[in-house]
Specification:
With about 300 residues, the protein is an alpha/beta fold. The protein has eleven helices and nine strands.
C-alpha cells in the first residue's frame, strides 16, 4: 500500500480534507495471517494514551507527543521479527495513513473508559473499537482489559462487557485478547496484585468469559513462578511487557524464561520497547524479537 501521508506533518491535512482516506487505506492494506510458520508473535502496544496513561519511568508525560510516539512506532514496526501492533483507532489510523501496517497483525484496543487515576477507573467501558469495526477494517482481533477488584461493584459491568465482546469477536472469527488482573484500590490509586496466586485467579475468571473460548488469547504479566501461573490455562498466551522499571537486562531474562513455557506464544510490549532507557528503540525491539524467535518450544 502506498502511504497516503508521506510524513507525520501531513496527517492533519489528510484527515481534514479526506477523512475517507482512512477506510480506503484499510481496504488497500496488505494483510497476513495471525501466525507465521514459527507460531510466534511480537506485538507492539500503543493504547496507553487512550486511558490517560502517558507516563514512562519518571517522566509523567513521555507519551504526550503524538509525533514522537508515531516516530517510535514506525521504527519498531520496521524491524524484522515484529509482527504487528495493538492500539486505539487514532493511533492505528495514523499508522494506516503512513503506510506502516502492510503485512502486519493489527489488534484494536476496545475498553479505554477506565481512565488512569479516575474514581471510575474500574468502570472500564468499551469506548474505543467494537467488533464490527475491527472486522470492517480488516484487523485480526480486539484486546480488552479485565480488572477484578472484589471491593468495587464496577467490576461486574466490565466483566459482562468483556464477555459480550469475546462472544461477538468469536462469531466473526476474530481473536479476543484478554488482559486480566486482580487489583485493589489503596489511597485512591488502583494497583495490580502481581502475586502468582492473584494472577492464577484472574486467568481462571477471564478465560471463562464469553460463549466460546475458541478465539480467546490471554495477555499475562510476567510474575514469580510463571510455570505454575501458566499451568492455569491452555489458552494461547502472550506475555505483557509491563512498565519499564529496574534493570532492562533483568527484565529480558524474565521474559526469556517465561517464553519457553508451552502455552506462551510471544510478547506484547509497549513502553519498554518504545521508550527504552537508552532511547534506542531499534536495539530494544531487536533484542525482544530475538527472545521471541529464539525461545525454546
Amino acid at each position: 500500500m502506498t502511504a497516503v501521508a508521506s510524513s507525520i506533518a501531513e496527517l492533519t491535512e489528510v484527515r481534514a480534507r479526506r477523512p475517507q482516506a482512512i477506510a480506503e487505506a484499510a481496504a488497500a492494506r496488505r494483510r497476513r495471517p495471525l501466525l507465521g510458520a514459527d507460531g510466534r508473535l511480537l506485538l507492539v502496544a500503543a493504547d496507553h494514551p487512550g486511558r490517560g496513561a502517558l507516563g514512562v519511568r519518571e517522566e509523567p508525560a513521555a507519551m504526550s507527543s503524538r509525533s514522537d510516539l508515531l516516530r517510535r512506532l514506525r521504527v519498531a514496526l520496521s524491524r524484522p521479527g515484529v509482527d504487528g501492533v495493538l492500539g486505539t483507532a487514532d493511533v492505528l489510523e495514523d499508522l494506516l495513513l503512513l503506510g506502516a501496517l502492510d503485512d502486519k497483525v493489527v489488534i484494536g484496543s476496545m475498553n479505554r473508559g477506565g481512565l488512569q487515576g479516575a474514581v471510575f477507573e474500574l468502570d472500564d467501558r468499551f469506548t474505543a473499537y467494537d467488533p464490527a469495526t475491527i472486522e470492517s477494517m480488516g484487523f485480526s482481533g480486539g484486546k480488552m482489559l479485565a480488572r477484578i477488584d472484589p471491593d468495587d461493584p464496577a467490576t461486574v459491568a466490565t466483566l459482562h462487557a468483556c464477555g459480550a465482546a469475546v462472544t461477538d469477536l468469536a462469531a466473526r472469527g476474530l481473536l479476543a485478547m484478554i488482559e486480566p488482573f486482580v487489583c485493589h484500590r489503596s489511597g485512591g490509586r488502583v494497583t495490580n496484585d502481581l502475586t502468582p496466586e492473584a494472577v492464577v485467579r484472574s486467568l481462571a475468571v477471564c478465560q471463562s468469559l464469553g460463549a466460546t473460548s475458541a478465539y480467546t488469547w490471554l495477555k499475562v504479566p510476567v510474575v514469580d513462578d510463571m510455570a505454575r501461573v501458566m499451568d492455569a490455562t491452555t489458552l494461547p498466551t502472550l506475555l505483557l511487557g509491563g512498565d519499564p522499571v529496574g534493570d532492562p537486562q533483568d527484565t529480558y531474562a524474565t521474559w526469556s524464561d517465561a517464553l519457553a513455557l508451552p502455552s506462551v506464544r510471544g510478547l506484547v510490549v509497549g513502553r519498554a520497547l518504545l521508550y527504552p532507557a537508552d532511547d534506542d528503540v531499534a536495539a530494544a525491539v531487536d533484542l525482544a524479537a530475538g527472545l521471541v524467535r529464539g525461545a525454546r518450544r
